[in-house]
């Protein structure tokens, strides 16, 4: 494939995409960021082939332009793009977490626009967190605009194929409904739980007790506030609808507790467990591709460095590490996260060969 690609916004998502697109032979990936230091870093890290000083000039040379900026900035850039002297046949796309407002903005463009949302990421942001394998096995949603033909969609799919993501075409409204349920509204829950902890004034020791469960459920509250401000305001109606559903759910749960019926309460948890346990495992249909490996470990000094040392010797990278529980004399659970299922399998084999500890995939 021979093409000139311009990625605008070189943070976690733009940086990861730019790096992955370099897997195509013959493609030149130019990158632009409003923050000149980020653009310089991206170039030095080999994430982009070139860092053009003029956005307008770089845009005029591109066959594909991908906006990977916070969705508020993306809408403004799309407005500006009307004044750029773009190539005939150029395909514009984005990576934003919302699609309806973006696609409304696309209605006013004279050029082909196909909305995009790679549904993989993390609570981290910035070019330093970018990885070319970020989108492997994740869904990548496309929302074609009115000027996009089947051939144009195929062209963009061809470009994105090297990300190894699973590409699906959806209507923008359907996308925003589903992401409100599984991503946007849960983000508000995470943030609100942290606020609730912060307001706890009676027992100042409470936050010291915030253990695995609280950390798991609130991890995404550490994400970039600007990005989430934009997502929340752009998908406000769908999120408010989820909030109404949630309040109704809480009312029912409150009633269940007030009734103090142990059987009904157990049934509530049982039903939730069944649904949760049957969710597709990450990388095979879930939103985000992180491949977790659970290892039962004793609470002895040096155990974590011993295990991660074996992985380092076998050149297996981990993307995250956490301990679910450790108490004296009791085995704890170390959870190691890997970027790919192959890495997880290699780690599992490595521990089976080199240690006596059980490791398993939940
Ligand atoms: N973080 C995540 O896990 C995911 C994010 N997304 C979406 O991808 C987009 C980018 O998100 P991240 O990469 O996480 O954000 P980020 O904060 O890591 O990177 C955004 C980059 O855009 C640059 N930028 C901001 N305004 C700009 C402008 N007007 N012109 C040029 N550059 C500008 C910033 O300097 C920054 O380097 C957002 O729309 C987000 O909704 C999609 C999937 C996952
Ligand atoms: O870290 C996580 O689990 C995320 O929620 C990452 C994420 C953020 C925004 C998206 O549109 C998609 C994925």
From TrEMBL:
A Gene Ontology molecular function term for this protein is: NAD+ binding
Query: Boundaries of each Prephenate/arogenate dehydrogenase domain copy?
Result: 3-287
Q: Which terms does the UniProt entry file under GO BP?
A: tyrosine biosynthetic process
Q: Which UniProt keywords apply?
A: Amino-acid biosynthesis, Aromatic amino acid biosynthesis, NAD, Oxidoreductase, Tyrosine biosynthesis
Q: Which residue range or ranges hold the ACT domain?
A: 292-362
Q: Report the SUPFAM superfamilies cross-referenced here.
A: 6-phosphogluconate dehydrogenase C-terminal domain-like (SSF48179), ACT-like (SSF55021), NAD(P)-binding Rossmann-fold domains (SSF51735)
Question: Which reaction equation describes what this protein catalyses?
Answer: prephenate + NAD(+) = 3-(4-hydroxyphenyl)pyruvate + CO2 + NADH
Q: Which domain of life is it from?
A: Bacteria
What general EC class does the enzyme of this chain belong to?
A: oxidoreductase
Key word tRNA processing present: no
What Enzyme Commission number(s) appear in the record?
Answer: 1.3.1.12
- Name of one Pfam family that matches: ACT
- InterPro entries assigned to the protein according to its UniProt record, in alphabetical order: 6-PGluconate_DH-like_C_sf, ACT-like_dom_sf, ACT_dom, NAD(P)-bd_dom_sf, PDH_C, PDH_N, Preph/Arog_dehydrog, Prephen_DH
**Metabolic or biological pathway:** Amino-acid biosynthesis; L-tyrosine biosynthesis; (4-hydroxyphenyl)pyruvate from prephenate (NAD(+) route): step 1/1
Would you identify the family this protein belongs to, as annotated? Belongs to the prephenate/arogenate dehydrogenase family.
Protein name from the UniProt record = Prephenate dehydrogenase
Provenance organism: Planococcus salinus
């Amino acid at each position: 494939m021979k093409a000139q690609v311009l990625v605008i916004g070189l943070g976690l998502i733009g940086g990861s995409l730019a790096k992955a697109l370099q897997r195509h032979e013959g493609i030149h990936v130019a990158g632009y960021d409003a923050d000149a230091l980020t653009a310089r870093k991206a170039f030095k890290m080999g994430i982009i082939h070139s860092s053009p000083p003029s956005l307008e000039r770089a845009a005029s040379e591109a066959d594909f332009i991908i906006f990977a900026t916070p969705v508020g900035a993306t809408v403004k850039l799309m407005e500006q793009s009307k004044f750029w002297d773009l190539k005939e046949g150029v395909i514009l796309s984005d990576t934003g977490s919302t699609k309806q407002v973006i696609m409304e903005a696309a209605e006013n463009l004279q050029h082909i626009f196909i909305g995009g949302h790679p549904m993989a990421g993390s609570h981290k942001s910035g070019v330093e967190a970018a990885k070319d394998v970020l989108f492997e096995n994740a869904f990548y949603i496309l929302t074609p605009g009115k000027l996009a033909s089947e051939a144009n969609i195929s062209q963009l799919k061809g470009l994105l194929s090297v990300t190894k993501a699973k590409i699906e075409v959806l209507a923008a409204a359907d996308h925003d409904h589903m992401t409100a349920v599984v991503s946007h509204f849960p983000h508000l829950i995470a943030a609100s739980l942290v606020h609730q902890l912060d307001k706890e004034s009676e027992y100042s020791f409470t936050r010291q007790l915030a253990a695995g469960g609280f950390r798991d459920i609130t991890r995404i509250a550490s994400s970039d506030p600007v990005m989430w401000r934009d997502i929340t305001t752009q998908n406000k109606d769908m999120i408010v609808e989820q909030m109404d559903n949630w309040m109704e759910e809480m009312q029912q749960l409150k009633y269940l507790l007030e009734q103090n019926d142990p059987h009904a309460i157990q049934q509530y948890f049982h039903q939730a467990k069944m649904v949760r346990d049957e969710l597709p495992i990450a990388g095979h249909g879930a939103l985000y591709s992180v491949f977790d490996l659970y290892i039962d470990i004793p609470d002895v000094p040096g155990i974590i460095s011993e295990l991660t040392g074996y992985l380092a010797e076998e050149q297996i990278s981990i993307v995250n590490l956490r301990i679910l529980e450790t108490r004296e004399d009791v085995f704890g659970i170390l959870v190691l996260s890997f970027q790919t299922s192959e890495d997880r399998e290699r780690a599992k084999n490595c521990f089976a060969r080199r240690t006596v500890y059980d490791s398993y995939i939940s």
